[in-house]
Design a protein that fits this description.
alpha+beta, Fructose-1,6-Bisphosphatase, Chain A, domain 1, D-Maltodextrin-Binding Protein, domain 2, 5-stranded mixed beta sheet, Inositol_monophosphatase-like, magnesium, Inositol_monophosphatase_CS, EC 3.1.3.25, metal-binding
């Protein structure tokens, strides 16, 4: 499949269908306080609804793009190894929020065709907001969105999961907390929303000015990074190797168009030069 605009629109439409199909049951199950299992440790929860939503999404994608590869957070990579289309699926990005009834989580689905990221959706089932990106642009509920907002730290709302428990364990704890403190001091407001994909969708829409995460997975950000870029914002992959696709980088820094990133505290905190941003 060639990566042209009509093909990307078609893949975006399939992703929308899959996200809505999974989103309905998630909306019904929301605030039911489901039982929570853990994966790597107690900071990494999963519920039966994560697994059920991913299987629903896989079924829709298989029906409309037979033989395609689906890389899901819960079920790993499955499908035809030689397929031209590869999907990246996070059935619930923000499981910890979903599990306790905090209304900030989403379904994230991205399509890569012949190695190019060409379509993505981030669906907020609580608000029924469908963010869609294709090679034709970015929309929310069918209306074009532009990533515009604050110009500097002092007037910006920033969102980040940093520092995570892994960040605190894996480095100099005092320095890690000091970096976080510099972010708190610099920004007008700093939030920890709990869903990278939905946070980035809000950057694309201009509802959040800056987003940062040094530890992320492809299924969390593939759809959302296309949203940010197609809406005119900036998405910088952090820490990846030259030649790797941007969605495979282990971290990111994103901001709205017109934001003074060079003058931001994030240049220091994210270690842009040392971490190999903007490959």
């Amino acid at each position: 499949m060639s990566a042209d605009v009509p093909a990307s629109r078609e893949l975006a439409g399939i992703a929308e269908l899959a996200a809505r199909t999974a989103g309905g049951p998630l909306r019904t199950a929301f605030r039911s306080r489901p039982e929570v299992d853990v994966k790597r440790d107690f900071h990494d929860p999963v519920t039966e609804h994560d697994r059920a939503a991913e299987e629903t999404i896989r079924a829709v994608l298989a029906e409309h793009t037979p033989g395609s590869v689906v890389v899901g957070e819960e079920g790993g990579a499955r499908g035809g190894a030689d397929s031209h289309v590869r999907w990246y699926v996070d059935p619930i990005d923000g499981t910890a929020n979903f599990a306790v009834g905090l209304p900030f989580f989403c379904v994230s689905i991205a399509a890569v065709a012949d190695g190019e990221l060409v379509a993505g959706v981030v669906y907020d089932p609580v608000r029924d907001d469908m963010f869609t990106a294709s090679l034709d642009g970015a929309t929310c509920n069918g209306e074009p969105i532009r990533s515009r907002g604050a110009a500097s730290d002092a007037t910006a709302v920033a969102a980040s999961s940093y520092p995570s428990a892994a960040d605190l364990r894996g480095g100099d704890r005092d320095e890690t907390l000091a970096r976080f403190g510099r972010m708190v001091d610099a920004f007008a407001t700093l939030r920890r929303p709990g869903s990278a994909a939905l946070t980035l969708a809000h950057v694309a829409a201009g509802w959040t000015d800056v987003a940062f995460d040094p530890s992320i997975n492809a299924w969390d950000v593939a759809a959302a990074l296309l949203l940010v870029r197609q809406a005119g914002g900036t998405y910088l992959p952090l820490g990846g190797r030259d030649g790797d696709p941007d969605w495979d980088a282990p971290g990111y820094l994103a901001c709205v168009a017109g934001f003074d990133l060079a003058g931001s505290v994030m240049t220091e905190v994210a270690g842009l030069t040392a971490m190999g941003a903007g490959r």
